[in-house]
Structure formats: C-alpha cells, structure tokens
Amino acid sequence: MTYENLDAKLVNALLGDGRASLRSLAEELDVSVTTVSNHLSDLEEEGVIEGYTPRLDYDAVGYDVTAVIQLQVEGNALPDITDTLRDHRQMISVYEVTGDYDVIAIGKFKDTDGMNDQIKELLTDPDIKASNTSVVLNAVSENEQFELDVEDT
Amino acid sequence: MTYENLDAKLVNALLGDGRASLRSLAEELDVSVTTVSNHLSDLEEEGVIEGYTPRLDYDAVGYDVTAVIQLQVEGNALPDITDTLRDHRQMISVYEVTGDYDVIAIGKFKDTDGMNDQIKELLTDPDIKASNTSVVLNAVSENEQFELDVEDT
DNA sequence: TACAGTTGATGACGTACGAAAATCTCGATG
DNA sequence: CATCGAGATTTTCGTACGTCATCAACTGTA
C-alpha cells in the first residue's frame, strides 16, 4: 500500500473539518503533533491533498441554476473546446468522456436567462456538432468527497 | 456595499487558501482580525460557507475511474433511486434533471471492474427504465469553485 | 535504519471583551 | 417637506490571554 492507515485517517479527519488544528487531529488520532505534521506535509507533497477550500453554497450567493451540458465535438477541436469551457469560470467540472457525447460540463448560473445566454454563446462554435443541456432540478448531493478506506489491524 | 464586498473578498481569499489564518486574511483585506472573525462566523451561520475540506486527488489514492451515469426512472421511484445513489459513498454528485434522463450521477471507482460491478448492481432496480454510462477519459477540471463578484466602489 | 515521540523555545494564532467609530432611527424643527 | 441631531444599534478595532504551529535536538523502538 502506497499510503498508510494513519494517512487515511488523517485525510478522513480533515474531510470532517478542513480547518482542524494539528493538535486536535493529533488527539483524535492518538498520535503526536509532530507525526500529524509530518504526514500532512507528505500528503501535500505527494499531491494526495491538493489544497484546502471552503465549501460554498452557491445557491446562497445567487447562483440558483445548475446545468449539465453535453457536447458532440469535431475530433480535432476537442482541446479547443475543453479549454474554452474550462476558462468559463462558472464551469465547475469539464470532462472528456466516452459515449454518445464527447464532453460533459457542469456549470452554475445566476438564472435561466444567464444560462441560456452563455450556452448559446458556446454553441456558436462550428466545431460543436450537437449539444444537449439538462437543467438540475434538485442537487441531491454535489461534490461530496468520500472518506478513504481504513484497514483496521 | 462595503459589507457585502468584504464578505466576497473573504470568500475569495479562502478559495485561494482554505486554511489561511484569520491574521493573514485580515492583513490581505486590510481589516482587523476581529472583523474577519465576525464576518467569517456570519458567513458560516448564513450557510454561505458550509464547511472546509481538503481537495483530494482521488487518482492519487487509487480511484482511477470516473463515470457519469444517466438514468431514466419511474416517476414515483425517483426519491428511492436518488437516496440509494447518495448513500453510495463513491457517488460524488447526484442530480435530478430535466431532459432525456431523470438522474445524472457522477461516481468514482478504483477500476473499470469495480465500476461495472457497482453499476450493474444499481441497474437491477426495476424502477430504472434506461441508463447510459459515460466513462471519463480526461477530467479537464473538476469541482472548481469560482470566485464571487466583488463590486468595486 | 527509519519512523514516532518528547522536550523546549519562539513566534503566530483564535477568541473574548470593552472601547471607539460608523450607521441607522425617528421625532423635532425651521 | 427637507433637514437636523440625540440616542440606539451595528460594525470595527485594539488588547490580552491561553492555545497553537514550527523547528531543532534528542530518545525510544521495531
């Protein structure tokens, strides 16, 4: 195993509270502060932990509409399209995928008008052969990060 | 005005570093530590900030496959299906949507075999009328949280 | 040898609290 | 009717105190 049990527990503890102090983590995991500090540094260096962010409720700040946009794209234009999408800051996730469509993107908008405007603008690109937009009625769960397995000894 | 502005700046600063200290935030925004503390508490109480998490690279811990699963569901079974999906911890996001399908879910798996097993298990539910799975070839961006608008005076 | 823990020293950190400043409220006044 | 201003409310600030993170040198252990 590339990462140890303690690392998994550490990650899981941080998933519960990303601003927890090293001391509280040390107490929770029953190891020393030094150990927590060392392992955390390692996890960050290895890239397992890429950073820390607040979890925002975009609904609460006026972004009420979420949409899933699927695109069929001319093969050689795929990089351009994905770059364009990524640079739209309201695009939360952009995936190149197998299946009926080539790209699936998830975006957040202040209202349906704003959404329509942005999507229409995107679809002017002649390399987009087909598109399909699904508006989210209810986000049952969103961007949930699940806990890592801890093999108990 | 000034009030909302400070909150937006505060959120944006935290998006840059979710573990930034109140002092460093205070310095960056040129207000006192107390002010940062108060506004942060308010943002948390209002639900704008729902918590703090590390951003995990699931690739780095062995979850190499991401899939977008779309389902057509018998109308009255929708709550059951979404509950089931949400309770699958590997489901990152579960949306009820308009369009050809009723549910779009995004999940992460250790390998394609694991993915197939889980999806097949899901599809045994007789209330699922149709399904469509797209495997992610490349996550151009994922769970990006964009910064809030700051109206400059 | 490699990893975890301990100790101690130092500067940074979070929070509580009272004071100061800014803002709002609303009736009185010209 | 518009303006004023005393008092109330809200917001911000500085200070103080106990806690925390970090580093280094050292010990224990498998």
TrEMBL record, chains A, B:
The keyword Transcription applies. Residues 3-64 form the HTH asnC-type domain. It comes from the Archaea. One of its GO terms (cellular component) is cytosol. One of its GO terms (molecular function) is sequence-specific DNA binding. GO terms for biological process: response to amino acid. SMART domains: HTH_ASNC. Pfam families: AsnC_trans_reg, HTH_24. Keywords: DNA-binding, Transcription, Transcription regulation. PANTHER family: LEUCINE-RESPONSIVE REGULATORY PROTEIN (PTHR30154), TRANSCRIPTIONAL REGULATOR AZLB (PTHR30154:SF34). This is Transcriptional regulator, AsnC family. It comes from Natronobacterium haloterrestre.
